[in-house]
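Bump. Still looking for RGS11 protein structure tokens.
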Amino acid sequence: MDPLGRAQLLEFLKKEFSAENLSFWEACEELRYGEQSRIAEIVDSIYQQFLAPGATRWVNIDSKTMERTLEGIKTPHRYVMDDAQMHIYMLMKKDSYPRFLKSELYRNLLAEAVIPPETKKRVFPFMRKQRHSSPSP
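Sorry for the wait, here they are.
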């Protein structure tokens, strides 16, 4: 959700030659939440960029997921890329993202982070001890 964090993750993925995974995930989000009138256009764009044979930003998904996705894009709809998107998400979650969290890029991002003042308050202010407690009548 953090634009700066996402930009740093993208930079990290570029260095690892896997930036297409995040780009694919973002394109699928655009499909899911974008304009209804552009669904067929967005599905075609995702296919051409990431899934077609010889695609310039090809993503590596398993054959069953590819089969279901290719069958689904014959009748494009908002959720046609869900299986493929989840596959790529899990790859990033289990592999790329943990490495990013250990990277110099991430450490620098944390070092430059601004901590909002509201986080300095007590975590659970409603759990304060009452100063004058009296037993119930």
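The first helix runs from residue 3 to 15.

Edit: fixed formatting.
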